[in-house]
Amino acid sequence: MDGASYQSLIKHYEGCLELHGDCHLGVDWPNPLDAATRYRVMLEVMGSDISDPAASLLDFGCGTAHLRHYMVEQGITNIRYVGLDASAKFVELSRAKYPELEFYCIDALNDGTPLPPVDYVIMNGVLTEKRALSFDAMWDYAQQLLVRVFPAARRGLAFNVMSKHVDWERDDLFHLPFDLLASFLRTRLSRHIRFRADYGLYEYTAYVYREPR
């Protein structure tokens, strides 16, 4: 895939931030209630480890660290939170909000810098929009990115994509068939996978684990 192609996604989100500021619209989530649902489902990849003070989490594509804000609201402050984004604008704002936390600005496909190793990686909204990219270009990007990111997760990875089981599909969203994703994950990442489509949104979340759960 042309390295410049996925840069259009980064520019899109930066445009949302410039237009709407530090809110759900600034990271292109339609409403705060659905965003909170996504945060809850993403964190559930950790299971009982959410209470382990030694556990760590990488918020890949952290935006303005809204996941961290949600965690604090829910009283989940015991685990180590690390944020990462390809956009310097988002990372700068996140660092200003949470100067005590670790944030990295890394374009994972163009920068060979090792990703910080953690127990769990969350990629919330990173693969839900394709904008003007073709399905094939977005699928190629998704595969490259997942292969790059999964090694950083010692225990598990969670990410979401749009479902094919909807009344209609939007051309700017990434609607990915279950079977296609399952085949890729089992072949390239891990046999230990779980799909979540039980939380009322027109998407599903994939949990990928190193070991059986």
Automatic annotation (TrEMBL):
Which CDD domains does this chain map to? AdoMet_MTases
Please give one Gene Ontology molecular function term for this protein: methyltransferase activity
Q: List each copy of the Methyltransferase type domain by range.
A: 58-128
Q: Which GO terms describe its biological process?
A: methylation
Q: Write the record's keywords in alphabetical order, separated by commas.
A: Methyltransferase, Transferase
Q: Which Pfam families match?
A: Methyltransf_12
- What name does UniProt use for this protein? Methyltransferase domain protein
Identify the species of origin: Lacipirellula limnantheis
Lineage here is: Bacteria, Pseudomonadati, Planctomycetota, Planctomycetia, Pirellulales
